[in-house]
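Render this sequence as a predicted structure.
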Amino acid sequence: MPTAREDEIKAFTGGTVHIIKSLVSIDKPEHPPLRMLTQGWFMPKNLSRLQGAMDASAETALERLAGSGGECDFAQDIALEYPLRVIMAAMGIPSGDYPKMLKLTQELFSPEDPDVSADGKTQEEVTAGIINTFLEFHAYFTALTADRKANPRDDLASLIANAEIDGQPIGEAEQLGYYIIVATAGHDTTSFSLSEAIWHLAQHPDLFAELKANPGEMSKKIVEEAIRLASPVRHFLRTATEDIRIGDKQFHEGDTLMLWFPSGSRDEAVFDDPDTFNPHRDMSTRHASFGHGAHICLGMHLARQENAAFLARMAERVKSIELTGEPEFNHSHFVGGIKHLPVKIELE
């Protein structure tokens, strides 16, 4: 981020550039017990509870597609809201608040995209907008916490609101960070990956035919390859904790490193023909799109299951997909992907 923005955010937070204290930006000893609060919730064996929400959301999307006559902006009309409905249902957020969560997520992740913020804004105005977005999140989730403490339910919001570590409630900053990271990262990244999959399927009718013939197996392969190529989380910054040499580069303790995930997921030393969409490639070597190690994406199994469920359902209802224009990508170096994808989809 621009240096001036760093300074303004540090002034707002009291010294850190992390306006949100979340799992993304903390290490042990704080990180492991915080992550464990919900890790079991996001494991594959427990995600069956969300299958109904996935099926319902996919059906809603396909009915909307049918009502449009088949021509639509897939990224905006279908992909944007499909995973949003799933993660909001998991959190227990009322459906009437979904548009607000979508708006705040885009303002947080893509504050300089012209579709999100008016052109011509100064850096000071963009920074003020980021801070205001944080304050809106704070107000919303503070009210949600009070409700779930008084009326706990079987949802993620109740788990976070009433979470304890070693018998003590987690702090307000940790609680707020948890809400925000689940509510935001739980849909924007998944929608970008889904649009990536449809973009390539529209260009490769043979692969779409394979999906229709074998939706159970092919949906998973297509989703994994789309996630590899999309790499919706573009980067995280990390700080070297000791002097280390990587390849021909020397890093020193305290140096800041940018982990550029799209580069890792397209590493020609690891993947054959890395820029080609090939769902049949050997994926035993994991791509970098979900990160690695202690901070590997908490929701990676959910993302895979959501998009595979959509593609499998789509394979039953859709006869063909064709592009009617070029994709347009959002303006963000942090979380990004296809924001407009004009297509014509013929239903069975």
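Summary. The CA atoms of residues 144 and 212 lie 42 Å apart. The first strand starts at residue 71 and ends at 73.
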